[in-house]
Amino acid sequence: MTKFCSGIILFFILICVIWAPMLMYSSGNPSNIPNPIKDVNVQIDIKATGGGLTPFQTTLCEIIPYKESDIFDDIETHNYLDTYNVQDIQLICCQSDASTMWLVPPIVQLRYIKSLDNSTKFLFTWVFTRERPKGKEVVKYESFVEQPPTPDEVKQVLNGTTDHFSLLNAYPRYFRVTSSGEVRRLEQTASSVSSDLYLNRGSPPWWSFHDVNALDLVGCKGMSGPVAIVVSEETPRWYLELQ
């Protein structure tokens, strides 16, 4: 009898150890507090032996809640989002034109062109701002473009021979921002975004980012800049009380 009771007690202890953390962090936990994305910044940097330059940067991004289901009806999500709470999912649509001008002096640009070689990389950065957790309100996701343009292709745009080059598999389409303040590619997703980066030769010049699959995201109302679908996890109330 004693062994039987001990077995039952051990069973319930194991259940608590396994399920308690899942319940605390689950979006179905009524004690959790929604923690949506409030602000977004997108940036593309060129990293070469001659240093780094930032051709594209924008903070002009619209954040659309998933609960506006009519917007998401035409977006193919491959059931990636089925297990998440709809109030935690947001569509991020950014303007295609950079919010900063290309103000690199000609002499500096000429020297930079000479530094471009096969080691040149393109760094894509998403910066997400939320209200919590404390100390991690602003989090970023950085990734190098998997298939960047060749040095010659970049040089041709900078010297005026052509007006754009391509960034293939530039960044993940889906992100998950955890309750603890980490940014990751959404699990089980392989979808990456490819784009064309244009140098508009106005006075002054500026860069534009054009998602090559922008037509698939009608929810962005014609905006063809950087687009992402983000799951921003709720924050457990007890976690806030510990801060």
TrEMBL record:
Keywords attached to this entry: Membrane, Transmembrane, Transmembrane helix
Q: What is this protein called?
A: Piezo non-specific cation channel cap domain-containing protein
One Gene Ontology cellular component term attached to this UniProt record is:
membrane
Q: Where is the Piezo non-specific cation channel cap domain?
A: 55-237
Gene Ontology terms describing biological process: cellular response to mechanical stimulus; detection of mechanical stimulus; regulation of membrane potential
Task: List the InterPro entries.
Answer: Piezo (IPR027272), Piezo_cap_dom (IPR031334)
Per the UniProt record, which residue ranges are transmembrane? 7-25
Keyword Membrane among UniProt keywords: yes
- A GO MF label: mechanosensitive monoatomic ion channel activity
Provide the species name. Apostasia shenzhenica
